[in-house]
Design goal:
The complex is a heterodimer of chains A (663) and B (499).
Chain A (H helix, E strand, L loop, with lengths): L11 H19 L4 H28 L4 E10 L2 E9 L1 H24 L6 H20 L3 H19 L6 H32 L14 H8 L10 H16 L8 H4 L5 H10 L4 H8 L1 H5 L2 H23 L4 H22 L2 H28 L12 H4 L1 H15 L7 H16 L1 H26 L14 H23 L2 H5 L10 H23 L10 H5 L1 H8 L4 H76 L4 H23 L1
Antiparallel strand pairs in A: 1-2
Chain B lengths: L1 H17 L6 H24 L7 E9 L4 E7 L4 H17 L7 H20 L3 H10 L1 H11 L4 H30 L4 H10 L2 H5 L3 H15 L9 H7 L2 H23 L4 H6 L1 H20 L4 H22 L8 H40 L15 H15 L5 H16 L1 H26 L15 H19 L1 H5 L3 H8 L3
Antiparallel strand pairs in B: 1-2
Helix pairs in contact in B: 1-2, 1-4, 2-3, 2-4, 3-4, 3-12, 3-16, 3-20, 4-5, 4-6, 4-12, 6-7, 7-10, 7-11, 10-12, 11-12, 11-15, 12-15, 12-16, 14-15, 14-19, 15-16, 15-18, 15-19, 16-17, 16-18, 16-20, 16-22, 17-19, 17-20, 18-19, 18-20
Classes of the chains: A mainly alpha (663), B mainly alpha (499).
Chain lengths: 663, 499
């Protein structure tokens, strides 16, 4: 391929899936049953993006420097809002990862969703999602990133609610959109603030971008707006609120487990590998802003650490196959945030990339199992799947071990999680403890799930069956990545690639030992609790028998939903109630006012009618006429002497007047 | 040319009234012909519109020379998009009325008269002339509600009429006082006098009262809290095409009044009363959003949503007068987006709300209901209808790449920079808007299908023809707002020169 002087062509990467989405939308309007055409269009659109993305990735590998291409979106007065694309290690690695995983999942879905009557619509949404996600990744402008961010939110909403006839799916879709929108509005305000202070929303623009030294210095020297928080920390924290919503961090994590109502490929692509990681990507992208004030990074680290632990604990109490994985995703995203907050871009992003492969694998394998077991998702009703679905099970186990960060043989998750633990060990002992406990939880709940699902006897009704190659093929490819990505990438120097200033953390044997101990220890405890004895159908959970109160607390997701319904939910209904009440009161007042106006005008009309018109004007004139007629008619009565008298009187008066005029 | 735009609908009204054809079938043809002819003239003008000159296509004739009243019309950056909007929505309105069978010989002429009133009011540049059309536009609307409305149409019509007349009287008195002092009704001349800064002295102690009187008139028309109370009933009782007219165009007449009558002519008073303006605007934004949350009648929900969205325009307009310590050129960085955002918001809201009310009307036509709890799962039977309805809904929510986002981003940027607290509180409404609109989608189109509606027909050809152009425009505005913003560039700088 020829070398292009401008990097603008990477803007084409999101365009092709967008065209595919538009084409499928047309197909939907005309021939909604053309499933194969829709699948073909989606794969073709994304396929072109895969090729361009890998070319871009290759360019970036050979030349780590950042390349940008910017253009004006709109101009009002002397204010311009710019769009742009950027190719740097961050976007290049995300492009490669997202397009690869998305392509595998598209391929998988071609078989998985083939039976669905709305298959074409599914691929339309998926393509729309791919367009938004890739746009978000290549964006060099905070506002373009935000716009694509909202588009992926829309796609997520549409896909969670894909089986819209299920009330739970419809409710989950709305919940996801609203909860993430709370975060999005934080990001929105952060963006407005940054734009107000710097006059630009471009990340990089030859030294004048938001993330470049000139503007950073300018931001750092602004007066503190309130409560001693600097403007730059305020902006970064608001941006982080956006990431909290999208990446399911506590306290806005409640939508992500419910999002599992969507089809499983959606859970794998959007709610595990790519979109939920967009929050982490956003923080990594805006890292220079966060770096400028340590307050913001501390917030990121603490929110991440607490999320990792809380979600890890809640995952232990779940019985739904996909929800365990969902909480696991939340927990891992928390670890990525922790890695960003304490270690830097390279560490957080490394875990993001590794996690994307093994979590996509876990979800796709889970989908294969759920398909094979006729839609059963309750792990208590599965069991012994190992025997009937060997390929899927093997892949799943690889993914599980990668997630648990098992060191021998070194699986993918081991390398990145080890970096996070090491970074926290070197900086903050509290967060290190939290991260280690979270890792312990990870191993434990994965062991619990694996023992429930794969070992023992099958506790369901119909017998499970292995999936076709279109489904197991992507699983095997992803399993290879899950097994080898971490080690290979680290060996090839991914950390230095992602962050030019990356300095290897000071090695600490204690941290390494603890890291290995929690990974293996969690599995061991899991085996002790769930693996030693055969699990009977309808038996109470071993943990539930031991500590019912704690288990129920975790099973009910630590009552976050109930808490929100009782606080924010109630507040919103009260506000709505008062708004309605105010309007009702106004309505009464206005009705009364109109009533009085009517009464007044009626009275007025009545009185004008009766008095002025009838009595005075009409009757009055009639009476007047009659009276005057009476008077005049009395004079003309034919009585001659009276006439003569009047004539004489008139003559006298005339005479007097004549005389008077002579004087 | 502009007079042609205004009087073509009038001609068509006469035609529809005098030659309605057999069973008044010809009436709608007259109407469609009239609005399309006007639209054609507008598009012709649009191609000749120059973004580098201010006022253009001027027609100026003596009317009542002794009172200094002229027939004076023209198009500039403040009304260009609005005239275009009237042109587009008038076609939608006529198509929405296509299947009306009840007294078309009365209905279509009234509709066309209403459009004449709107065109006249949006193009007039002399107060007397403007007011004549402003008032005139009220009369057909009153009769359309009164004769063709829902169950409570009498109450709705009388309330609509009384409130707007109250506002108009105030407006008229205010401008008459101004006329006695200054001897002119010409908007541009008044603005020139105001620009010299001597207008308050020339008017004397009555100045603040004149301002408040004019404000009151527009306050009712826009409407803003608490004088919006005529609105929910008028919108929900009016027949669908009239609701589109009221929400899409008549409310814009109020906002346009702020742009034409208040900002250029009363800069000193606006600066003084910014606090009042911002307070009522914020109250309207929040009340609209939260009250919508509790509605079961979808038409009322959209009415409150419209109240909230139109108030964003006033937010953009009133923040430009906020005093700030920034240097003038820095301040302009915040004011231009706010003001031009407000102008664009009028356009994008007009397109979106017209589409939404139209679709809702079609749903009501199919099912005879518009209550949330009557529906459920309609996506199964009418997928294409659902898709188009959802696109319009998301435009209203403010999804990027659709019309609502571009204008709201600009308004919120200006508002946040100049009045951060007001902007932050308004952000709550952005969340609430998403909440009630998604609840509507959830309860109407998703969930299990209500068996009553299992035989609903999907989009008809007429519906496709009506809605697709609106959606195309919404996407165009959303993807490339710069194209639409450049029309208001020059005039917004002219208005802002006094702030």
């Amino acid at each position: 391929m020829p070398e292009f002087s401008s990097i603008l062509w990477i803007g084409l990467i999101p365009i092709f899936p967008l065209i595919a989405a538009a084409v499928i939308a047309l197909i939907l309007f005309v021939k909604p049953k053309w499933h194969r055409a829709a699948i073909g269009a989606a794969l073709l659109g994304l396929g072109i993006s895969v090729v361009i993305s890998f070319y871009a990735f290759k360019l970036s590998l050979s030349n780590h420097t950042q390349q940008t291409a910017n253009f004006t979106w709109l101009q009002v007065g002397n204010t311009t809002v710019d769009f742009g694309v950027v190719l740097d290690p961050l976007s290049a690695s995300m492009l490669a990862m997202v397009t690869l995983i998305a392509f595998l999942i598209f391929f998988y879905s071609g078989n998985y969703m083939a039976e669905d009557p709305n298959c074409a619509r599914f691929f339309c949404y998926l393509s729309l999602f791919a367009a938004g996600m890739l746009g978000l990744v290549v964006s060099n402008s905070l506002i373009l990133l935000f716009m694509c961010w909202e588009i992926v939110g829309l796609a997520s909403y549409l896909l969670i609610g894909f089986w819209f006839h299920k009330p739970a799916a419809a409710a989950a879709a709305k919940k996801a959109f609203i909860t993430t929108r709370i975060g999005d509005l934080g990001l929105f305000v952060g963006m407005l603030w940054a734009f107000k202070e710097t006059g630009t929303l471009l990340f990089y623009n030859n030294g004048n971008g938001l993330l470049e030294d000139a503007k950073l210095t300018m931001l750092a020297h602004l007066p503190e707006p309130l409560f001693g928080i600097s403007a730059i920390a305020g902006i970064s924290t608001l941006i982080f609120i956006g990431a909290v919503g999208k990446s399911g961090q506590v306290p806005l994590h409640v939508w992500l487990p419910d999002a599992m109502e969507g089809p499983t490929p959606v859970s794998a692509l959007i709610h595990a590998a790519t979109m939920v990681a967009a929050g982490v990507f956003l923080v990594a992208r805006c890292y220079p802003l966060f770096q400028a004030d340590v307050v913001a990074l501390n917030i990121v680290a603490w929110v991440g650490g607490l999320t990792a632990l809380i979600a890890g604990l809640i995952a232990i109490g779940q019985n739904d196959f996909k929800r365990i994985l969902a909480y696991s995703t939340v927990s891992q995203l928390g670890l990525m945030m922790l890695g960003l907050g304490l270690g830097g871009v390279a560490i957080g992003m490394f875990h993001l990339l590794g996690h994307a492969f093994f979590k996509a694998l876990l979800f796709l394998a889970a989908g294969s199992i759920i398909h094979g077991c006729h839609g059963e998702q309750d792990i208590r009703k599965l069991g012994g799947v190992w025997r009937s679905m060997p390929v899927t099970s093997a892949c799943y186990l690889v993914g599980a071990l990668a997630l648990c960060a098992v060191p021998i043989p070194p699986f993918s998750g081991f390398f990145s999680k080890d970096e996070i633990l090491l970074a926290s060990y070197n900086t903050n002992p509290w967060l290190f403890t939290i991260a280690a406990l979270a890792s312990l939880c990870t191993s434990f709940y994965m062991a619990r799930q694996v023992f429930y699902v794969f070992f023992g006897e099958y506790r369901g009704h119909e017998h499970p069956h292995e999936s076709p190659w279109q489904i197991t093929g992507p699983l095997v490819i992803l399993a290879l990545f899950a097994a080898f990505f971490g080690g290979t990438a680290k060996y090839l120097g991914i950390l230095e690639y992602l962050d030019a200033d990356f300095a290897a953390e000071h090695e600490a044997p204690v941290a390494a030992i603890i890291s290995i101990a929690v990974a293996v220890g969690g599995l061991l405890i899991g085996w002790l609790v769930y693996g030693r004895r055969k699990i009977e159908a309808d038996a109470t959970d071993t943990l539930e028998k031991a500590t019912p109160a704690l288990f129920h607390f975790l099973q009910h997701r630590a009552y976050f939903d109930e808490l929100y319904a009782a606080t924010v939910g109630k507040l919103w209904s009260w506000l709505a109630f008062f708004a309605d009440l105010f309007d009702a009161a106004l309505l009464v007042v206005s009705e009364l006012a109109i009533y009085f106006v009517r009464m007044a005008s009626n009275t007025f009309a009545f009185h004008t009618d009766r008095v002025v018109i009838d009595q005075w004007s009409f009757d009055g004139i009639c009476n007047g006429l009659r009276q005057s007629g009476f008077l005049t008619s009395r004079a003309q009565n034919g009585f001659l002497p009276a006439y003569l008298r009047a004539i004489a009187l008139g003559a006298v008066i005339l005479g007097l007047l004549f005389w008077w005029s002579l004087i | 040319m502009i007079s042609l735009i205004t009087f073509l609908p009038l001609l068509a009204a006469l035609g529809a009234f005098l030659y309605p054809g057999k069973e008044a079938r010809l009436a709608r043809i007259w109407a469609l012909g009239g609005v399309l002819a006007s639209l054609a003239v507008i598009l012709k003008l649009a191609t000749r519109y120059s973004t580098t000159t201010g006022l253009q296509f001027v027609e100026r004739h003596h009317w009542i020379p002794s009172l200094n009243i002229e027939y004076f019309v023209g198009i500039d950056g403040l009304n260009f998009l609005l005239v275009l909007l009237v042109g587009i929505l008038s076609v939608v309105v006529v198509l929405a009325s296509w299947e009306i069978t009840e007294r078309p010989r009365t209905y279509f002429p009234l509709l066309l008269l209403e459009l004449t009133g709107l065109y006249g009011a949006f193009t007039a540049l002399n107060f007397y002339h403007w007011f004549l059309f402003f008032e005139f536009s009220l009369v057909p609307a009153f009769f359309l509600i009164k004769l063709f409305g829902g169950e409570r149409r009498d109450e709705a019509a009388i309330k609509f009429f009384l409130f707007t007349v109250l506002g108009s009287v105030a407006l008229l008195l205010g401008f008459q006082l101004l006329y006695f002092k200054l001897g002119t009704f010409d908007f541009y001349k008044l603005a020139e006098i105001a620009a010299t800064g001597t207008l308050p002295e020339q008017v004397g102690p009555l100045y603040p009262y004149i301002f408040l009187a004019v404000l009151l008139g527009l306050w009712v028309k826009t409407p803003l809290v608490p004088l919006h109370i005529w609105q929910p009933e008028a919108y929900s009782q009016a027949p669908v095409p009239v609701t589109i007219l009221l929400s899409g165009l008549l409310s814009k007449l109020g906002v346009y009044g702020f742009l034409r009558l208040i900002l250029p002519i009363f800069p000193a008073a606006v600066k003084e009363h910014t606090c009042l303006l911002l307070t009522i605007t914020l109250a309207t934004i929040l009340l609209g959003a939260y009250a919508a949350l509790r509605q079961n009648d979808i038409k009322k929900m959209l009415t409150y949503s419209s109240l909230n969205h139109v108030a964003y325009c006033i937010l953009g307009i009133s923040v430009i007068a906020v005093a700030s310590e920034h240097a003038a050129d820095v301040k302009l960085h915040f004011q231009s987006p706010a003001l031009q955002g407000a102008i664009l918001q009028m356009f994008s809201h007009g397109l979106t709300v017209a589409g939404l009310f139209y679709m809702l009307g079609r749903l009501e036509k199919r099912t005879g209901s518009r209550y949330l709890n009557d529906f459920g799962g309609l996506r199964t039977v009418i997928p294409n209808f659902t898709t188009l309805f959802s696109v319009l809904t998301f435009s209203s929510i403010g999804l990027p790449f659709l019309a609502g986002f571009a204008s709201e981003f600009l308004i919120f940027f200006g508002a946040y920079s100049l009045a951060p607290v007001i902007a932050l509180l308004s952000v709550l409404a952005l969340l609430t808007t998403a909440l009630f609109l998604l609840t509507m989608i959830q309860r109407v189109f998703t969930g299990p299908l209500n068996e009553k509606w299992k035989n609903l027909p999907d989009l008809s050809a007429l519906e496709w023809i009506t809605v697709t152009p609106l959606i195309a425009l919404i996407v165009w505005v959303g993807v490339n707002p710069g194209f639409w913003l450049k029309y208001s560039e020059l005039l917004s700088l002219y208005v802002l020169s006094q702030y």
